[in-house]
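Annotated sample (chain length 485).
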Amino acid sequence: MRRLTREEYDYTVSDLLGTKLTPARAFPREETVKGFDNNASQLSFPGQLAEQALSAAASLAQVALSKAGSIEPCASSETSEACGKKFIETFGRRAWRRPLTGPEVDRLMGVFALGDTFTEGLDLALQSLLISAPFLYRIETPAERPRPASSWDMASRLSYLLWKSMPDGELMDVAAADGLQSKASILAQAERMLKDPKAERTFAAFNAQLMELPRINTAAKDPKVFPKWDNDYPRLLRDSAEAFMAHVVKEGTFADLFTADFVFTNDQLSAYYGVDKPGTSEMTKVSLNDPKRSAGLLTQGGVIASHSGFTGTSPTFMGRWVRERLLCGTLPPPPPEVNVMIGPAPPNQTTREHHAAHNDNPDCVPCHRLMDPIGYAFEEYDAIGVHRTTENGKPVDPSGEAVDSDVGTFVGATQLGEKLAASTSAQSCLATQWFRYAQGRLEEASDKAALEGLLAAVRDTGTYKNLLLKTVQSAPFLQASPPQE
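Output written by the structure step:
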């Protein structure tokens, strides 16, 4: 059983009611696990959320009432009770993503009967539908022994994986005919659904969380140190990074994440990248022909700026990002008595020289040896992502090493990107991160075969489409859920 995330709730409401309302934006933020907000273990239902969900249900019921005639028109000969029941069964099937049982219909008709008028009764029944567990949660039929997931459960698995929302009419009709019991039929539906623009939702959410793109929104810089930093840059750089990722999803491969020599920019951002204005406010693909900007997302300004400090760069922040998000490394928290803030480099040192202090403290070495040597690759850029060759009048040294991995040594972010693209560690990490997001849980020993299949997909074509199609053919996705303990 998994509660809908805020994003899933709003997309479901949009597809269910045809509204642009986004009530879940006011819901409490989800706790993340390994950087993802859809881990079922953390999707609790605190009291604050219960109150907000109840308020949202009341508002959404009014929206549904305003569209009642188009959702399920009743014949003029039908009684109010018959019309109400017909509406509840039809709307309830869509809201709960499965047919309602007889007892469930009876209970909702009891709620309907509490209204003094037809409209009041329907309003009460709708609120009950929209505050109920089958709407707020993805509830599946558990299996005592291994068996395929039911067609109705599979319909929701497909729709929330590909669209982050409820099944559409075609998918529900296939489920009603028990037509999602073979790999071929499931694959056919997945391929159909991938052609829908709604499929961009899942890839966008996965990439944003994997690459920590929301950090760009809060990238702040000292105007005395970086007078060229524009307050609009965080928004523009986030848009640029998202456009880049969307392009890679549609037309690129895994390797492009680390080796692409293009960015997406518009007239307002063009000066930042030192290119001609493309003549539009829309983010547009522009080739840079700059070897110092040929590391895909690694050398994009938003990523560097958001993993740097207010006044200077941070090899630790950049190295932590690569180690945890791109190599799936685990870093223990620092000892409580250790001051983790090293501060900006003094005028007579480079940032790299200043960070060498981590090597002098035995409490720091175990973690920082895994981060700082990777982060040094980005020292050829300042804290707003502008390329540099000197710092404080001294040459910068962008050489580094990703210890305890197959990435090895490198000089600069471009070479680091090339090595990440060819790295089994990085490829395996992408497969693992996708598994965590797609399944809404961490991997277990029994998932070894599924993870190997995803790694093969990364190595084969390296496309996001292939990664997703491999997912819907894997045992963890196809098998019914075991009973919850």
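Annotation: The chain is about 50% helix and 5% strand.
Annotation: The chain has a mean pLDDT of 94.
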